[in-house]
């Protein structure tokens, strides 16, 4: 356990170092960053639409059931990509009007790298290069974690060293991430016929949903307490 904790802490320091390095060296081309964000978004959207909707590509698409595993969710789970693309589209528009310090020094070129890596993963998966696809998705977690760290540091809502369930229970958690996890677990429970996998996924999904509901209630109560007058 101590070794695992050391690796986690060390990983966080690496992410912070990479963030400081990219902030100092990469935000020199503000217009290029924004233009490339738009271009790679269109590229990602087109790739996913083709992979998911083209009837001739249905058997090769990861959204159509290729390379089924014991933790593969039901196909309806991938419908969340519609919402994801909608939000990403909102970002590429919002970046032109948002806090430029956040876009240029914060998100920087990381959105471009995440998008390119995602498309590369999709191509490798469809061409049956599963090991390379797995390595690619692991590499993708680096810029994703950098962006997540930046946003959390700027918002100051949640301590980076606090466990996910811990700050979720306090009503300060990552609701979108928790909802995605619950959505995925329900999908696994629906898709998998093995009793152990089915019930494990279902129980975990319910537990996660309970934590989400509890955190929402506590946040509402906390806001109510803040709005209560000090006198009277």
Automatic annotation (TrEMBL):
Domain of life: Eukaryota
Membrane-crossing segments per the record: 6-24, 31-50, 70-94, 106-125, 131-151, 172-190, 196-217
UniProt keyword annotations, A-Z: Membrane, Transmembrane, Transmembrane helix
Keyword Transmembrane appears in the UniProt entry: yes
Coiled coil segments of this chain: none
PANTHER family: SI:CH211-161H7.5-RELATED (PTHR33802), XK-RELATED PROTEIN (PTHR33802:SF1)
Protein name in UniProt: Uncharacterized protein
């Amino acid at each position: 356990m101590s070794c695992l904790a050391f690796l986690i802490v060390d990983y966080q320091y690496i992410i912070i170092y990479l963030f400081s390095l990219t902030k100092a060296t990469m935000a020199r081309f503000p217009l290029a960053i924004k233009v490339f964000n738009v271009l790679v978004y269109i590229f990602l959207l087109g790739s996913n639409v083709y992979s998911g909707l083209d009837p001739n590509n249905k058997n090769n698409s990861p959204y159509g059931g290729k390379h089924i595993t014991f933790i593969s969710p039901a196909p309806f789970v991938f419908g969340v990509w519609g919402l994801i693309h909608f939000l990403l589209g909102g970002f590429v528009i919002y970046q032109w009007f948002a806090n430029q310090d956040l876009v240029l020094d914060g998100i920087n070129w990381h959105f471009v790298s995440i998008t390119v890596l995602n498309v590369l993963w999709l191509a490798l998966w469809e061409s049956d290069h599963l090991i390379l696809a797995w390595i690619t998705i692991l590499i993708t977690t680096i810029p994703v974690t950098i962006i997540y760290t930046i946003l959390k540091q700027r918002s100051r809502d949640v301590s980076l060293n606090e466990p996910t369930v811990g700050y979720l229970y306090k009503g300060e958690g990552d609701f979108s991430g928790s909802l995605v996890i619950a959505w995925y677990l329900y999908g696994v429970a629906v898709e998998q016929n093995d009793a152990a996998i089915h019930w494990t996924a279902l129980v975990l999904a319910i537990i996660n949903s309970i934590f989400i509901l509890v955190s929402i209630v506590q946040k509402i109560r906390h806001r109510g307490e803040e709005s209560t007058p000090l006198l009277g």
